[in-house]
Structures are given as structure tokens and as C-alpha cells.
Amino acid sequence: MEQDSKAYISGYIERARKAQAEFEKMSQEQVDKAVQTIGRVVYENAQYLAEIAVEETGMGNVEDKFAKNKQKAGIVWNNLRGKKSRGILDTDETTGITRVAKPVGVVAAITPCTNPIVTPMSNSMFALKCGNAIIITPHHKSVRCSTKTVEMMNAALAEIGMPENLIQILDQHSRENTRNLISMADVVVATGGAGMVGAAYSSGRPALGVGAGNVQCIIDEGYDFSEAVPKIIKGRAYDYGIICSAEQSVICPEADFDQIMDEFRKDGAYVVTDPDDLEKVRGALFEDGKTNRHSVGQSPQKVAELAGIEIPEGTKVIVAVAEGTGLTDSLGGEKMAPVISAYKYKDLDDAIRIAAENLEKDGKGHSVSFHTNSEDHIAKVAESLCVSRFVINQCSANSAGGSYFNGLNPTNTLGCGSWGHNSISENLNYTHLMNVSRVARFMPDNYVPTDEELWG
Predict the structure, then answer these.
(1) Rounded CA separation 184/189 (Å)
(2) Domains of the chain and CATH, by start
């Protein structure tokens, strides 16, 4: 079986290397045309691809996936267009260094069932931008929709004369095949569960992976919570809670807590405070300390049904007023459903403590959302919490992964640094799939400091 698997994967690698060698000779304009074509396929077929993703995975909802497909296709291409990624990039006249872009080779990409359309899309766009070929191994729950996406992208690439097999996807799925793929490719991009990400880092190849999400959302004292709450609800409700960058806990000033909960109710949330009902919600979300698969990516109504509680029709999210941080209450951890935990804090130091303890449970290194008018408070929160991105006065679910309205790289793969056991602490971008050669010139006129200047 092992030899059969290696032979099977070797065929994919051989086809990819042949395609990559041909693609590497193409101009920047041809490369960019291929990248644009990939994004356009998802943009123009956003509705159909959203429908087949929900149908196959049973997670999320068509409306949000449709919006996500269009938004991600547009913003990723917008970020990539016009940027040089082939040949000589630039020369620094001060240092005399010329940078030359080169492909990394064959990219292996592990993609998740939570984002089965846009992750293969963005990974392919990043890979091709630098002249690479890519082989995708999708989650077993999203094989059909991810495969259809790749087939549609390949058909469009063929129409513009691109080499065959620039993008491939495994048609036989097993742990053995995935293991052999990631050990035989040149670079691995892993977006998914901790097990697969860990396997990628153990593959013997350079790997770029992600950590768990558990976005802590803090509302600052004095901030207009009527501005913040609709954004928080939108983020927690987005695609029924399966987005890693979505708000997971809302940490509120104690003096305004009741008013903030009323604002949540006004905007379509159901607030749970009764200890018995809270325990029922925990039971719906978690089973033996692990995520209950029956609640993943399900509507608030389905979660309420699993919990055995009644909620009003039209409820967008369930707010669970937690009885402790993630160190003692499972509600402080990552929840893969439209349920957000709520906390009250005495001062900003207390808010930071709550966020830090929840992040110790899940999500350290990922993201924090902060609604505030104070630059001083932004600095304090940013210096205190160990995450890779701080999203200010925005809906985190659709902005931590890059937005037209912030400077983060648009992506579906959010690195969490050493805190999340990842090799990068930023959003994956095409530059992570580029080798750069540096030409170093002799600079005889450079100043050499004296011993006195160096050592005093």
C-alpha cells in the first residue's frame, strides 16, 4: 500500500514539475493573466460554488458563502495585481542589493471543509503568482466541491493557453496519500485542523500553517456600543460561526454590561444567563471536552434544538454569559457555531486578563478585535496580548483575513506565529511562496566605523 501511494503521488509531482518548468518561462503579464483567471472563475460562479459547498459539507449557509466567494476573489486579486513576482524585483542603491524572484517549485496545499472554495482559490493564486505549480489535498468532507472548483479553474486556464496540470487535486483521499504528498512537494501550505497542520510541520519540507481561532473582542469604556454590537453580531453569525477569524467572546465594561446585552437583544441575539440553560448550551457545543460535530456550522436554531432551549424565530446569534474564562469554562474556548460568550470587566487591565486567559485555552497567536477611540488603549492592548493581528473597530470575521479597508494581506490562511506553533505570524501571501536571490555588489565607498565608535 505504501509503495502504491508513493507511486500515485509521484505521478502528481512529475506532472506538476513539468507544468511548472514550462510556466516558469512565462512573462509577468502571462502569469498575472493566469492569476486573474483563477479569481474570476470563483467570482463569476460564486452562487453555484456556495450552493455545492453547503450541500456537501452541511456547514454554513449559502448567502454568506456567496458573499465570501465574491469578496475574497476580488480582494485577493486586487492585492496581487500589478505586483512584480518574476525576474528582477528591485535594486537598493544604498546597499547595492538586487533582488531576483524565483519559484519555490511544487506547492502542496491541505485545504479545509470550512472554506472549501476560497482556500483552494487563494492558495492557487498565490502559488501561480510566483511561477509555481500546486497540488491540493482537500478535506474528505469537501472533496466534490473543492474538486469542482479546481476543474473549473483548470478549464479557464486552458482557454488562455496555460500549461496543463498547473493546478491539480488528489482524486484518491487517504492519510497515506496526504502524508506522501507533503513529504514529496517543495513547500507545504496547511489550512485546517491542528492534526493536519502538525503533520505538515513534520513532513521534512518547509511548511506554512495556521493555528486555532478564538478571537477575543473587547469593547472599550466610553465607546459607542451601538456601533460595535452590530459588527460583532455580523462576525459571529457569519457562515454560522465556522470562520476562524470570527468574534468568539465579547468582553464588556461592567458599568455598561446590561445595556450592551440589551443592544445585543435589539439586534437579533438571544442572551442566555440561566445556569441550567448555559450548561445545555455547553452540551450542544462540546462533547467530552471536544467540539460536538453536530453543532459545527449550524444555525442558531439548530444549536438551540441540540441544547433543548427555545429561542425566538430570526435569532442571529446566541450570547452565553460565561461563568469563567476558558481556564475553567469551556465557553471561553473556540466555538464552531454562532454562539458568542460574554464577559464583564472592571478596567482595561481586567479586560486584557480575560482575553489572555481565553487565548490560553484556544487561539493564542491568532487575532483580537478591539472597539475603541483611544490610541493609547490600542497600544496597551497590542503590547499586552500575544496574537498576530489586532482588528480595530471592524467586523473581525471579514477583515482579519484582509479587507479593502485595512492593510492586512487578503488571505484564507492566517499564521499565528510561535504562539500558535506556526512558522509565520502574518497573513499568508504570495511572497511566502517565492524564493529570492540577492545580488551583492562590492561597495568600496561604504564607511567603516572605528573601534572607538563601535566600543566606546
Answers:
(1) 13
(2) 2-210+424-439 (3.40.605.10), 215-403 (3.40.309.10)
